[in-house]
Amino acid sequence: ALTVLSSWWYLLQVETGDLGDVYKIRVSCDEVPGFEGWHLKSFHLEELQTKQNLNFDCKCWLSLNREDKELVKEFPAVIEDQKTLPVYKYVVSVHIGDRWGAETFANVYITLYGKRGDTGVRKLHTSLTKGRKFQRNKV
């Protein structure tokens, strides 16, 4: 069981199996109409059997309107006497075909996998190019 302390005022207990070494957490919030965002200061985990504490410095917004416009973020564990793992940002280029019907108005999601896990399902909601996303013969 883990006790989760978040942003000073939330205290939750979560029952899990053995997670092994926790080196990061992924925090997300739902996209609700009218939702302006959530500022997350920090996250703290305590393993109830061993009393091991893990701290995660967040200091960011989960919002589609602020900072980097994300509702899902990952945070590395801050462990004394250990180097904190870096968090990388990626630019994903989606090349749409030139055939009839190649474009879409649907929500498009991606998951990246690596040696230390995965990103979880991420919605591709922000484009770095002008115009509508996922148009025929566009990037």
From TrEMBL:
Lineage top rank: taxon: Eukaryota
Segments crossing the lipid bilayer: none
InterPro entries membership: Inner_ear_hair_cell_LOXHD, PLAT/LH2_dom, PLAT/LH2_dom_sf
Xref: Gene3D superfamilies: PLAT/LH2 domain
Residues in PLAT domain copies: 1-76, 88-139
Entries under PANTHER family matching the protein: OXYGEN-REGULATED PROTEIN 1, PROTEIN CBG12474
Protein name as it appears in the record: LOXH1 protein
Organism: Jacana jacana
